[in-house]
Amino acid sequence: MELLIEKIKTYVPLSVDDESIARTLFHKKALKKGEHLLKAGDVCRYIFFIETGLVRYYINNDGVEQTNYFNKENEFVCDYMSFLPQTPSYVNIQTLEDTTIWVISYVGIQQFYKEVTAGERFGRLAIEQVFVSVISQIGSLYTDLPETRYTKFLSDYADIAQRIPQYYIASYVGIKPQSLSRIRKRISGKH
Questions:
Q1: CA angle 59, 47, 86 (to 5 degrees)
Q2: Which residues form the Cyclic nucleotide-binding domain (predicted)?
Q3: Helix, strand, or coil here: 91?
Q4: Count of Cβ atoms closer than 10 Å to residue 38 Cβ
């Protein structure tokens, strides 16, 4: 839980009482590789914090999985489009490794916002970070060539690229695995 507390402190200061509240609202859970934190059609009822492990977000488009995002250790995970209004999700969130998470419910985060001194500020800053990331990714899909998207992936996920199967990386970039192989060869030939 110390990693979670330190992560919250990167957004807002926490008093001893604030820390105590956080410690009662978050609960630890262990998941095996391949398990889902969320399945499309279900309501996202939790915000997750990854202590160890790796997850991917994906949608199923006519039987084809399209990977949209990855989260790793020391990051929050949530489908906010489902979580905030408490409506069914259209995304899946799946572990790519055995993963240990800290979980807070929708009711719990509302209590956190109300009882922790800078709780609401924490929520605003965290969601602003998610918003900027999502808008940047959407813009890249419309304006960047696949090779550019791949080099951005390598830049954004340098520390975990080796932990992600190539077919998920290809899906994230928006190309077939064979095309990714060609891009990787071209890039390695430049160095």
A1: 70
A2: 21-112
A3: coil
A4: 23
The token pair that represents 143 in the structure block: 């304006």
CA distance 71 to 49: 9
- Return the domain boundaries, the chain: 2-119
Is the model's pLDDT at 191 over the cut of 70? no
Any residues with CB less than 8 A from the CB of 87 and at least 6 apart, and which? Answer: 43, 81
* Contact present, 52 and 73 (Cβ < 8 Å): yes
Q: For residue 188, what pLDDT is reported?
A: 81
The structural architecture, per CATH, of the domain 2-119 is: Sandwich (2.60)
- Per the CB < 8 A criterion, the answer to whether 58 and 66 are in contact is yes
Q: Which residue has the higher pLDDT, 85 or 129?
A: 85
Record the pTM. Answer: 0.90
